[in-house]
Amino acid sequence: MFNKLFFKLVKRFRHSTAPGWIVLLIDMALFVFAFIMAEAFAIRSLAGLTVKALAVKFVVSATITLLMFLIMKPYRNIIRHMGLNDIFRVLTVCAIPLLICFALNFVNNTTDIVPTNYLLSYRAVVMLYLMLAVMMLLTRFSLLYIYNQYFKRSRRDVNVVIYGAGAAGVIANNALKQDLHAEYKVVAFIDDDKTKVNQQLDSVPVMRARDVLNPKFIESKKVTQLIIAIPTIRLMHKQAITNRGLDLGLTVKSVPHISLWMNGSFTAGQIQDIKIEDLLEREPIKIDNINVVREVLDKTVLVTGAAGSIGSEICRQLLQYRPKKIIMLDQAESPMYDLQFELKNNEPYKKSVDSMVFVIANVKDQARMEEVFEMYRPNLVYHAAAYKHVPFMEENPYEAIYVNVFGTKNVADLAIKYGAEKFVMISTDKAVNPTNVMGATKRMAEIYIQSRSTDQTHFVTTRFGNVLGSNGSVIPLFKKQLAAGGPLTVTHKDIIRYFMTIPEACNLVLEAGAMGQGGDIFVFDMGKPVKIYDMAKRMIQLSGLKGIEIKEIGLRPGEKLYEELLATKENNIPTYHPKILRAEVRKYKLEDIDREYGELEDIMFTLDDRRIVAKMKSIVPEFISNNSIYCDLDKKD
Predict the structure, then answer these.
(1) Staple 404 to which of 317, 431, 441, 616, CB 3.0 to 4.6 Å?
(2) Cut 0.70: pTM above it
(3) If DSSP codes are grouped into helix, strand and coil, which group holds residue 357?
(4) For the chain (length 637 residues), average pLDDT per consecutive 10?
(5) Mind giving me the DSSP string for 221-274?
């Protein structure tokens, strides 16, 4: 009966915190008990002891102690989260009254203001506050033990290894102890500092990486989770640790940078899952945006394709440089509404709301685009609008050309007509030696704007590969497939791609745009290409799910196993930024381009896809179709 009532009370109050006044009453009750015990042990003789003297001693010491409690407020600490600071506060709240009583005794001994037996003896003072400190700490530790013992019984057991025996590792360890959802047990700390190895933290051994991250140790200790607790760790080191942990079948997490939690208490919930973006095989790209500030400040900027993943991030970054006005243009109504809502209602963008203009328009609509240019007369144009999905464009070459080629031509011609200073186009690595319609259209757009640079309007192309998390990229697809329980689909086991994050890509677009002087094609150093099959395996491991299959479905029409950033006949030369290279490409005569594109536009009216693609191949000779219905149009040697 008692046990049933006890556990009912535990369930009712397990998430509650005792009111401070109750804790204060308990502490004062402990003081009364300690006072009685101290007097009992300190008194050698009852001679001269009166009730009045005993009462004066009690009142004086109790008043001093209560005042210290009210000043230091040890009763306000949440006992279940008690740490070293709380222990120090208890010791302090007992040490200061001890010193005050000592001082009173010393003053009274020299002045003899009151009879000596009206004050606690030195021996009694020491015993009183020593016992009080011990009892206060024992009470708190007992309550903490009961809480951990009974309130966390139903939690699952998780054996953990923490990589990092520094301050972040200690804080992570303490946070795990307080978690309500799991019973974490840290079985080892790992540290690269040899002076820490073979030491202990909170009775847990500090060991070398090779002694812990091996199958024998992991299996013997039943470790299921690895937490990286080095917030300033270099990316390559973090990747190596993560890969080792994943290979051992561990769930890998990391402690975020201290700036994200230093102003608040750190909890186990703030320990983050490792994301696939963390496993890019290079350090994050950083740039100095002084040139971008000079380029954008107080200028009117037009961004086409502004509601897309790249265009929207360009808009976010441009707003940091205080443009006079930023015209965000897209044909996609719903994504544009989402972007408008985000920028107008969230920091730090909403402070620039007066400079934002949102326009619904299609870049292939020449009359509508002219209206936009005439109304706003942009100084800078960032052209991100394009169709990008390879299989769709292989099936719809008419639309691909009208948007990617003639849409670009519309915007470029209007930039010249209305005196824009610079036109920056977002291209793709699929424009290099294209094997599909989409890539060929982007190469044709590159050729056109290269031929159009003037002294007044400088045209710049930026060329890069896949961006993690962009619309239609493989990462969101894999996440959806994981949520559905699999399988994850890859087109070919050996397919590789270059990857960078959306913010990195847009940062480099702005920097390259600022350095371009006309007719430039800039390519980005994207590090090592990533095998999509390996990425799928890593995503399954990071998810912690078991039994997820990876299925090969075959190359899609127009797809190739690997992408290039430079064509075989192109060279690159360095710029002042180590991650941005300038491609030396073949130049085209303006009159030839006008003639060829005029002929293509005439063919477009036939709606004959084969004639359209054949003309594309004559304009871009390196366009050799792969796994496509247009393969037979290629000239055979």
Answers:
(1) 441
(2) no
(3) strand
(4) 49 57 83 82 57 78 84 73 74 84 76 65 81 85 71 68 85 75 83 87 88 91 88 80 87 69 50 62 62 88 93 91 94 93 88 91 95 95 92 93 95 94 90 91 92 85 75 75 85 80 81 79 76 82 79 80 60 73 78 91 92 93 89 76
(5) TTEEEEEE--TT--HHHHHHHHHHHHHTT-EEEEPPPGGGTTTS---GGGSEEP
Q: Under 8 Å CB-to-CB from 79, ≥6 apart: which residues?
A: 18, 23, 140, 143, 144, 147
Q: End-to-end distance of the chain based on CA atoms, in angstroms?
A: 93
Which of 430, 442, 560, 617 is flagged as catalytic? 430
Beta-strand relationship, 251-254 and 272-273 = antiparallel
- What is residue 65's DSSP assignment? H
* Cis amide leading into 348 (omega within 30): yes
How many H helices and E strands in the chain? 22, 22
The DSSP output letter for 119 is: S
Phi-psi region of 108 (alpha: psi -120 to 50; beta: other; left: phi over 0): alpha
Amino acid (1-letter code) at residue 517: Q
Tell me whether residue 573 is exposed, middle or buried, using C-beta atoms within 10 angstroms of its C-beta: 0 to 12, 13 to 18, 19 or more. Answer: exposed
Residue 25 amino acid letter? L
Amino acid at position 43, single letter: I
- Which helix (DSSP H) or strand (DSSP E) does residue 595 occupy? helix 590-604
Known catalytic membership, residue 430: yes
d(CA 286, CA 579): 9
- Domains annotated for the chain, with CATH where assigned, are 2-150 (no CATH), 156-274 (3.40.50.720), 290-619 (3.40.50.720)
Maximum distance among all alpha carbons in the chain? 123
Residue 16 DSSP label: -
- For 602, counting Cβ atoms within 10 Å of its Cβ (0-12 exposed, 13-18 middle, 19+ buried), the class is exposed
Q: Are 502 and 468 in contact (CB under 8 A)?
A: yes
Task: Give the separation between CA 298 and CA 303, rounded to whole angstroms.
Answer: 16
